[in-house]
Amino acid sequence: MSLSLTLLAVVLGADPGACPRELFRIERSKNANVVLYEVTPGEATVLDRDAPVTASWLLLASSGKREPLTFFEKLFAYGFEVQVSKVADSATLTLKALKARAIRVSRREQCPVATTTVGGAEAVLQRVYVATDEGGAVPGVKYVELIGVDVVTGEARTERVVPPR
Q: Alpha carbon of 63 to those of 3, 38, 57, 69: distances in Å?
């Protein structure tokens, strides 16, 4: 297991030999609440076929509790579609709000990770930051930043995506 995964496991209070369930999170400019995307493990080296990935709120701005996404959040902002490979050792995840960027869930150093293109290179996705404009009747997205680690070099990678207006 890599040093970063080992440290993450220790910070989360898990056995350093165990893999963290969190794949990545979405953070927002609005408040400290985050949406966690976590893997649902199946047997040993495979993903759960029915629900390989789950998403839920971690309410850091208030109680610190977890809450499920609402119907509309699943449908639009934070929902996703997932297709599991035939042998259930990987999956392709597509976020509703970022359909053009496929995210691959697979194993790396025996632990599940989410990888996608960040800044022109394949990277382990760690965070997605959404900067919103809360000024109008309907909030808008100013930009989205993808943050991860290059799978080849280990260097930090960041890419800012500005939605068309």
A: 31, 20, 11, 16
Q: Can you give the three-state secondary structure of 26-83, one letter per residue?
A: EEECCCCCEEEEEECECCCCCECCCCCEEEEEECCCCCCCEEECCHHHHHHHCCEEEE
DSSP classification of residue 1:
-
| Structure-model confidence comparison of residues 47 and 10, the more confident one | 47
49-84 pLDDT, tens digit per residue, is: 888 999 999 999 999 999 999 999 999 889 999 999
> In whole angstroms, what separates CA 106 from the centre of its chain?
13
d(CA 115, CA 108): 10
Please report, for the chain, the start and end positions of each structural domain, with discontinuous segments joined by +.
Answer: 20-161
CB atoms within 10 A of CB 44: 5
Contact predicate 77/96, CB 8 Å: yes
Residue 6: pLDDT band (50, 70, 90) is very low
Cβ contact 55:36 at 8 Å:
yes
